[in-house]
Amino acid sequence: MADYIYTLETRLSPDQLKAVTLVQDAAKAAEMNLYLTGGAIRDVISGLPIRDLDFTVQGNALKLQKDLERAGAVVGDSDDATKALLLTFKGGVRAEIAMARSERYDKPGKPPQIAPATISEDLRRRDFTVNAMALSLNEGSRGLLMDPFNGAADIEAKVIRVLHNYAFLEDPSRLIRASRFTTRFHWPLEDRTQARYVSAKENNYIEYIRSSTIGYEIEQLAYEDDPLSVLKVYEKEGWLKVLNPRWSTAKVDSVGLGALMKTRQQMNELGYAPDAAPAVLYFLTDRMGEKDISDLRRAIPRKDLVEAWKDLEDHAQQLAKRLAGKEAATPSRTWQLLSGARPEMILFLAITARQQAVAQKIKNFFTKWRQVQQKIPLLEMTELHITPQLPAYPKISNDVFLLLLDGKLRSRTETLKYLKPLAPPPPPPPPPPSAKRGRAAKAAAAAAAATATVIAASAKAKGKGKDQPAATPAVVAAKPAAKGKPATAKPAPPAKPAAPAKPSKPETPAKKSAAKPKAKPAPKKGQRNKAKGKKR
Ligand code: ATP
Questions:
Q1: Residues in the chain where the model's pLDDT stays below 50
Q2: How far apart are CA 106 and CA 253, in angstroms?
Q3: How far is 117 from 220, CA to CA, in rounded Å?
C-alpha cells in the first residue's frame, strides 16, 4: 500500500509542511476531523508541483480562524456559505480550509443548497475524479486515502473525467476549469467528459455561471505557471469574455509576462520564492482600461491578492527611488537594501525598472555580486576558528562579504589581516582523564605491584628449591595488559593548543591536516628537518 504521508512529507516544501502542521494542530484543538483534499492530493500522487493546500474539516472551518491567525496565517477571505477560509501562511503558502459539505443543485444558475456533511459526501460534490480524493490527517486513520471515484487511476491514465453527467450543467465554471486543467497538465478530457463538454458548449450552459465562481476562476489564472497559454485557450473556447467581456489576449503584455516568468525562475534557483501572482495579473491586464481592471479586482475573492496587485506599481516605485538614491550609493549598501526588500518587489522591478542604473543594480544583485561570496576565505577562517559555531560568525562573514563587495579588501592577504584579530581564543584543552580511567589505572598499578611481589616470591622460591612451580610474570601481568591498558597508569598528554593563525599561503587542505600538531611554536628550519629525519 502506498505510504501517502511519506510522499506528502517528501513532496511538500518546508513552509507547506509547517502549514499542514499548524492546520492539524488547530483542527485537533477544535476536535474536528481534518483531510487534505482536492488538487493537493492530485499533485502529490501525480508528482506535479503542489501549488496550494486544500483542507476539508468536518465542522465549521471558520472556527479555526483565530487559532490560525495567532499562528501567523493571513486570512485573505472567508465565505460564510461554505464556511471556508482562504489563507496565506508563512513563505506565501496558500491554503483553503472548508467545511465538508454536500451541495444540491435545484436549478441551473442558482447557487446550490449547502449542508454540513461527511467527507465521503463532500467528495461527491467535486468537479473531476482527479480532484475528488481525500487523505486523512487524523490520528487513527492518518494516511488513509479516500478515492471513491478512482481518481488515482485517472491520474495514472492522465485524463480529466467528470463525476457525473450533470457536472457542467450544475456548475458551468467546471467548463472553464476543464480547459485550465487540460492546458496545464496536457491531459485530455476522457471521451464521455469530452462529449458532455461539447454538448454543454452547444447548449450555452456557460450563461448559467455564477458570479462568485467567475471571480474564483480569474483568481486562479494568477497562479498558473503559463497563464498566457491558459488565456489563449479560454479565448478560443469563449470563456475569456465570460470572465470579462473586454478581456482578450491582445490586452496582455506578453513580453513583460514572459520576462516575469523567467526572472521568477531565476530567483527560485537562487532560493527566493516571490509570489508572482499580483504581477501576473498586472501583465495579463496591462492594456485593459481602469474600469475593467476595477471590475476584475472586485470579482476576485482573495483580498490580499487584490491589494498586492493594486500596490505593486507604487511599492516598486518606492524601491526604485531608494535604489537610485544615496541609500544605495555603494554595492554593499545596495546589497543590504535589496536583501531587505520584498522578493515580489525585486521581481516586478527587475522587469519594469525604467532607470538603467536601477535595473543594473538588480542584475548585479542576482549575478555579479553573488560571485564575490566565493572570495570569502572559508578554509582560513576555519583555521582561525571562525566557524558557524561562533556566535559572531554571521556578522563576521557578512562584514567580510560587504567589504569585498566594495573592493575594500583587495587581496587574500588583506582579507586575512582583517580576519585575524577577529579570531576567538584557542579552545580550552580537553578535560583530564575521567575518574573511571583513574580507577582503572589504580587497579593496574595494584596489579603491577602484585606482579612485583609474585616475582620476588618466585625468585625467592627459585632460590630455595627448583620443584616448586613459579608464577610467570607474563601470566600475572597479562590481565590488565589484555585490555590494552598499560600496567602503569600514565596521565594523558595535555591537549595541544590550537594552531596559531597562519598567514594565507595557499596550501592544499591535505598539507594542512598533515601539519596539524601545532602545539609547539613552529620549529626553526634546521629543527624542522631534524624532526622529519626522526620520523623517518
Ligand atoms: P489548482 O492546482 O489550480 O489549485 P485545485 O484542484 O486545487 O487546482 P482549486 O480551485 O483550488 O483547484 O479547488 C480546490 C478543490 O475544490 C478542487 O480540487 C475540487 O475538488 C474542488 N472544486 C473547486 N472548484 C470546484 C467546482 N466548481 N466544482 C466542484 N468542485 C470544485
A1: 451-536
A2: 42
A3: 26
